[in-house]
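Changelog-adjacent note: as of this version, every example in the card shows the full chain rather than a window. The one below runs 220 residues end to end.
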Amino acid sequence: MMRIVLLGPPGSGKGTQASALLRTRGLPHIASGDLLRAYARDNTELGRKAKPYMDRGELVPDDLVLDVMADRLAQPDAQQGYVLDGFPRTVRQAEALEERLRALGQELDAVIYLQVPEAEIMRRLGGRRTCPQCDAIYHVDTMPPKRKGICDNCGAALVRRDDEKPEVIRRRLEVYAAETQPLLDHYRARGSLSEVDGTIGVDNVIREIEAIVASAKAVR
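Full-length structure tokens:
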């Protein structure tokens, strides 16, 4: 059983690394952003409340995020461990997660921060295209679809998400820096933060994260 948090700015590769941990260790990938977008797409009450914040590139209020995550972490597949992507995003969320884990006699095994500079984030997110039907992700430069603008999996027209337009990306990064820096300090003060250069290539990042996870498992 491993409980891992992946931190990093939007576009830093958290989803890619979480998917790798799912393949190698069978840990479910729980992404708060994906959950919130699903709620918004399904037009749930929570989704309607969260969508305006996401469209503006702002953090969704803690209370809304905590409601979503509490429901997801209670599901059966999360009982044997997980990789959290995009949660926690604030110190309050981190403290709420720690309180929940303490009540279960558990703790986080690793908190990993992917460091990626702003210029690289702009390049990555600016070229990203998403399938609105199956959620497949492409990039116009590094991972284009076989047919321009068309999803390889289901044939739907690809879109640029509202929160991946240049002006919104810049706002997201500003918000991330302001709101999430205290979270990094929170984990550093506890000696639980591991930092990885997110620009060294996907395979190299995977190897570094696997080494961190293996080390954390060895000391348990």
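Structural remarks: Residues 166-189 form the longest helix (24 residues).
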